[in-house]
Design a protein that fits this description.
single chain, 418 residues, alpha/beta, Rossmann fold, 2 domains, 5-stranded antiparallel sheet, elongated
């Protein structure tokens, strides 16, 4: 069964999949799977009023197909372990520009803050720590795989580091940090990959190696979450543009660890807003329009709802569905109307090819004068650069994957059947 949508198309459609009500529950599609015999799965994030919803149960989800509410005994809707299909990874960029090093109080505060951040995140994901100064390359400071009970990292490299160039290449560091995040997500074979970039900067870009427009373009193109940390009272105009998902500012250098701690708690809670939901569809043929609904009750007993609309082709569906089976993520769900539009486009193209060419004098001639197969050479897409960074990374025991395109996460860039 061919995928309904390529990963590139899914990126463009994600905005259409976010359905929200004012002050209500917001659902955002991350990835999805449709597979025989009749399994439908979706990896989704859930927020209520902008805050992560972390305590949903299977009974809080409901499904409508073609407007008909399906009974729980029909769908057998199940919440699956997200670790079976999803990889989360964070890259932390640390501004080490200037001449300070060793026992400098600011370096000590930075080290303590990053230590706390890594310790909080490691139970849920791997973390890469990279430093930057005025030079064009990032500097490896630490690589930490996911570990539930790991001790707090030492990260003495932060205090020992001596800037090779005392200027600040903030723009270039962010762009390269996004590439490094791509690279690490590509190393592990998981169909769902979610990346986070955290940027600590002491101020705006000073080096001018990369233009601000190039930085803004890179931020606009990525689907990674990007947060920023800064020190209050310093000129840091760029932090708000960089921290698309949020900015934490400390009052001064001494309170930097608190800013990192608050961001760590925010990210840890945010990780719990993701749900892998699978149900068994009673459909056996045709395109089904689905409304995926969530009901959430807050601590005060006030209930709010939200929904997500999509569709899938049930052709070939049959009995025997196991809602606890691992989703294959070979065929994706489609945004509303996408399947019908694609079929109409394919039919129109078929009709055009059937129309006889006027004035053709031989089987080898073409009215356009070009070969039907075309002469354009396929270009090899770029992969993430690992220059100047450690080779270790990702989950232990899993082989790196040869990338076919630079990953954009969310959603995932690859589909796997195993």
């Amino acid at each position: 069964m061919k995928p309904f949508l390529s990963s590139t198309t899914l990126v463009a459609l994600c905005a259409a999949w976010l359905v929200s009500a004012c002050g209500g529950v917001q659902l955002e599609h991350v990835h999805s799977s449709v597979q025989r015999p009749s399994n439908v799965a979706i990896y989704v994030s859930v927020e209520d009023g902008g805050e992560p919803v972390t305590d949903l149960r299977a009974e809080d989800f409901s499904v409508r197909e073609d407007g008909v509410l399906l009974e729980p005994n029909e769908t057998r809707l199940t919440l699956l372990d997200r670790d079976a299909v999803a990889l989360h990874h964070t890259v932390v960029l640390v501004d080490l520009s200037g001449a300070a090093q060793g026992t400098d109080p600011q370096r000590s505060a930075i080290r303590k803050g990053v230590q706390n951040l890594v310790a909080k995140l490691r139970p849920t994901q791997g973390v890469t720590v990279l430093g930057f100064d005025g030079s064009p390359r990032l500097h490896p400071l630490g690589e930490f795989s996911r570990a539930a009970d790991a001790p707090r990292p030492e990260l003495e490299t932060i205090e020992r580091f001596k800037a090779r160039d005392e200027s600040r290449n903030l723009n270039g560091a962010v762009i390269e940090g996004l590439r490094q995040l791509d690279s690490r997500l590509m190393r592990v074979k998981r169909p769902v990959r979610v990346g986070t970039l955290i940027v600590f900067s002491q101020g705006d870009d000073l080096a001018g190696r990369v233009t601000e427009q190039a930085l803004l373009d890179a931020l606009a193109e990525t689907s990674h979450q990007v947060y920023a940390v800064g020190i209050g009272g310093r000129e840091a105009r760029q932090l708000d543009a960089i921290g698309r998902q949020g900015v934490e500012r400390s009052q001064d250098t001494n309170s930097l660890p608190i800013a990192f701690e608050e961001l760590a708690m925010r990210l840890k809670k945010g990780w719990s807003k993701y749900y892998l939901v699978q149900y068994c569809s009673p459909a056996r043929t045709g395109i089904r329009k689905v409304r995926f609904e969530v009901r959430h009750e807050d601590d005060e007993g006030s209930a709010s709802t939200g929904s997500l609309d999509f569709e899938f082709d049930a052709t070939g569906f049959r009995g025997g569905c196991d809602p606890t089976a691992r989703p294959a993520f070979v065929t994706s769900l489609s945004a509303p109307g996408e399947l019908e539009a694609k079929r109409a486009e394919a039919e129109a193209a078929k009709q055009r090819t059937r129309k006889p060419s006027e004035g053709a004098s031989g089987a080898g001639e073409s009215s356009s004068g070009t070969s039907p197969s075309g002469d354009a050479a396929a270009t090899e897409p770029p992969g993430g650069s690992d220059a100047g960074t450690p080779e270790a990374g990702g989950e232990a025991g899993e082989a790196p994957e040869a990338p076919q395109e630079t990953i954009v996460a969310p959603p995932a860039s690859g589909d796997y059947a195993d």
